[in-house]
Amino acid sequence: MAVTATDTHRTIEAVWRIESARLIAGLARMVRDVGLAEDLAQDALVAALERWPESGVPDKPGAWLMATAKRRAIDRFRRGKLAERKHQELGREIEAQREMAVPDLDAAIDDDIGDDLLRLMFTTCHPVLSTEARVALTLRLLGGLTTAEIARAFLVPEATVAQRIVRAKRTLAEAGVPFEVPRGPERASRLSSVLEVIYLIFNEGYSATAGDDWVRPALCEDALRLGRILARLAPEEPEVHGLVALMEIQASRLRARVGPAGEPVLLLDQDRGRWDHVLVRRGLEALECAQSLGGELGPYALQAAIAACHARARTGAETDWARIAGLYEALGRLTPSPVVELNRAVAVAMANGPRAGLELVDRLASEPALERYHLLPSVRGDLLFKLGRLDEARTEFQRAASLTRNARERTLLLERVAACAEGPR
Question: Are 387 and 410 in a shared domain?
């Protein structure tokens, strides 16, 4: 069957999505500049778009892209007026491969790829960058997403994302951030930054902060893929496995989190038969791995343990809410946060009744960090509703609806406002 140019372009898109992170990572090790590495990778992609429709897709497309990018690199070094020292440092390895009569494509793609990807993760998530810049650059260079795809995922203008990425690459270059895996005392804080970025991406997919969709599964998939890669590259880090466990278990609920029309379905109302039990099993295995490495009290492992309590319960009524409340208490001691305390209040309410939960929630009313946080009035409204204090509950649900930026969540909260006229079910 004839292969059309359109088919080839689709193949190139798929190859790029699979290979781009490895390609950029390998190039960044050589040129020590992630911005230049991406430019070289893009040059190789353009070459593929020009040649493959006529020549056909090579047997090892990733290796072809790497070899092409390396040739472009040495050409660029020769054209530019780089300092002789840098020319010698960066050009020697690439020049050696260029002078080979037959390119060694296996060597082009396989040298130190795992280490390169790990270096790239630590670079794109460097604390010198803003949170928004870290997320955008990670999705661009490691996730293989286009600027337009990132903009759509986070509901911001494409020009804004493009500017974040350009500034991030310039900041890394100006700060002289080394392309390396940090060691010693710095490693823990830098790893924490990597985990934070991955989980931010996942959370935006799991519970969208704005827009018309309650969930965006593609972002969850991107974060899960990055987390799984990181777990393979840093298998000795318990918190990496803790984060993967948390994401696997939470992702298992994605199909059950929305109804037929895309409406939100809250945890206790979900059909647990629709949960993905393969992901649950993978999550529980990752949690066991984190615990076996001595990381059972890490912040992500604790959150994964909470998710595991839900995953192990056959019904909502069988959930061990007392254990969940205890885990949130441990999490609050480790990483004090009013949001953690709000979640603990929910667990206490489920374990000991709405009055006990409301006492904890009311202590959070003056927290500045929760002033515009829609889930505080939402939780308070729910507890008041269960206590039969319907007028107060209606006021809280109205406030929550005015604070959320997600259209689906706003509709759900307004339905709760209407339900206050009917009383508890």
Answer: yes
